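Here we describe the complex-level prediction in full. Unlike the single-chain runs in Section 2.1, the two entities below were treated as one system.
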Amino acid sequence: DQQVKQNSPSLSVQEGRISILNCDYTNSMFDYFLWYKKYPAEGPTFLISISSIKDKNEDGRFTVFLNKSAKHLSLHIVPSQPGDSAVYFCAATFTGTASKLTFGTGTRLQVTL
Amino acid sequence: DTGVSQDPRHKITKRGQNVTFRCDPISEHNRLYWYRQTLGQGPEFLTYFQNEAQLEKSRLLSDRFSAERPKGSFSTLEIQRTEQGDSAMYLCASSLGEEKLFFGSGTQLSVL
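The structure predicted for the assembly as a whole is:
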């Protein structure tokens, strides 16, 4: 039972353009969402998060949008840079559950020159 | 480096052998988590500690798995009688309360 889904296993974007990574969830009890970035041979690194009381959160080139009614969130990277090439994981949790995260399967982003 | 440290980075073992992994969290973090990641999947929660107390275990954690965090500092994850299905990346993470998780680089286990 995959409660957090990332339906695009890979995405290729040109440098300078926008990257949009999508994530869907099925459990309406999730109220906090995170994006992690993972380079090969390293652990996931926190990127950005959003609480269910918001519909948008920005941090520099990264913006996360949350559509609660559609149970959908997306990560926008503008402009994309070659160093952004990595696997991006969407994760969800419930407030008060000790930050126990449920991860999606990841999307591999490749930013080309 | 004050990040989460895991040892070893890689472990190759034969089916039926026991293995033990170690995790050293960020020093001021009171929570420590173990996750497992298999190929093509995202990390899956296994267990977590608050200080030295193991507060939750996933149903993924069979009886062959045991985790400890003596004195609320480093943690060990032991797998007894390893099976080929145990082959995965074992990730440790730590946090300060409900704040975001910081992950280590993981231990890649291969069971032959």
